[in-house]
Amino acid sequence: MSQDRPQAAITCPFPDEADCRYVQLFDHAPLAIAVIDPGSDCYLEVNQRFCDRLGYTREELLHSTVSAINPHFHPEALADLARQVAARQVVQFYSHQTTKSGDELEVLMTVTPIQRNGSMLLHCMTIDMTAQLRAERQFVDSERRFRETFEQAAVGIAHVAADGAWLRMNQRLCEIVGYSEDELRGLKFQDITHPDDLVANLEMAKALLRGDVDTCSMQKRYIRKDKQIAWVNLTASLARNNLGEPEYFISVIEDISARKQAEAERDNLIHTLEEQVRRRTEQLERLSMTDVLTGIANRRCFDEVLSAEWARGVRSQQPLSIIEIDVDYFKSLNDHLGHAHADQCLIAIAYALGSLSTRSSDLLARYGGDEFLLLLPQTDRAGAESIARKVEAAVHALAMVNPGVPDSKGLTVSQGVATAVPARDKYPQDLLEEADRAMYMAKRRGRDQIFVSPPE
């Protein structure tokens, strides 16, 4: 086992509250989940279901390599899996896992990519299919032995007249369709064939009668006596008399209802897993765009929206404004009242600013420690300055104490306002830098000020 792994916190490997909540959901998920770094061949995260299945403790897994725990995933295989995931986003396959006690498990594994700190990690969800697959193999093996021993007596066998009348049948066929031998002799196969399959079944019979083929197969549905549907695999050939004239069809009928049900359940399971992956991906995307402390947009979100609004402004030639808001003497607030109180002040400011605009296009973001930004599409310089006045009033109305402010003034903010009409030969970052310069001008003028950058 690798001894060079950094120590990982068992209870919560993430630094903030939102990610800790994710850990709780991750650890109590009904599926066995692990996050793997393909580059280092290491487990980064494992939930309790994963630990229970393999019989290892979380510490044992997090301080080991993937290839040491599961020989089927040697580094080369893991690297190849990473390449497939990078290309296809979702990779699903059957694989094996070895428990600590040496038991071999067969699992359905769904692997999706996670981007973290510039690296691609593998998010692996596994479902233990050991019992089901073993049962299916045992069933197939049992069927094979039964057919070999009793000359296919385990499947339905019938002789059917050229017009479709049942002539002779075995007990298994009666069980499949739910009719007795006497009842079937009073019917034709057309009478109990599902209407949607009847045309194909008749075409198959005509091809045999014409001599186009010697044997035909198809999957079809019978309507049982109890009105339930029985899926079967029908294989038919034509028996002829000494003169070469058609005598009767030889039909071998295998009940595949269980297989069809298993396929439907498998498809539903795959759909469920894909939906879970989609929802988790959306959740991670939302988290990546949200400031954890205040719940408003973060820097990444602001930069993406600014780029989009700039492009929209280039087309519409409508003005775009930015207000940069910086809390005055925030370091003194931290020093005097502590980080917890300072964080509560930031939350209160974010809430107050968030209620100022009623336009869905406006965006409030926390851009850095004590720095907020307001993005105002289709807003000219006068409109932006008016909103800055509202910001000033809203912060004053909070009446929050800042012992580090000279003259015992309460908590205040300095604001820089910048406006531009987007153009193709300019960049959105230019507008952001202009708002930043305006904010520092407000600082230099004594703080608790609004400085509006003059037009170019």
Task: Note down, in words, how this protein is organized.
There is one protein chain. Helices cover 45% and strands 25% of the residues. It is of the alpha+beta class and 456 residues long. The strands form 3 sheets. Strands 2-1-5-4-3 form a 5-stranded antiparallel β-sheet, sandwiched between helices. The protein has a 5-stranded antiparallel β-sheet with strand order 7-6-10-9-8, with helices on both faces. Strands 12-13-11-14-15 form a 5-stranded mixed β-sheet, with helices on both faces. The chain is elongated.
State which percent range the strand residues make up.
25-35%
How many domains is the backbone divided into?
Answer: 3
Number of helices: 16
For the termini, the CA-CA separation is 64 Å
List segments where confidence is low: pLDDT < 50 over at least 5 consecutive residues: 1-12
Strand order of the largest sheet: 2-1-5-4-3
Regarding quaternary structure, what we see is single chain
Radius of gyration: 35 Å
CATH class of the largest domain: Alpha Beta
State the helicity in percent bands.
40-55%
* CATH homologous superfamily assignment of the largest domain: Reverse transcriptase/Diguanylate cyclase domain
CATH domain fold name of the largest domain: Alpha-Beta Plaits
Give the averaged pLDDT, no decimals.
86
- Silhouette: elongated
Structural class: alpha+beta
The biggest beta sheet reads:
5 strands, antiparallel
- Number of strand segments: 15
CATH architecture of the largest domain: 2-Layer Sandwich
Which tags fit this structure?
single chain, 456 residues, alpha+beta, Beta-Lactamase, Alpha-Beta Plaits, 3 domains, five-stranded antiparallel β-sheet, 15 strands, 25% strand
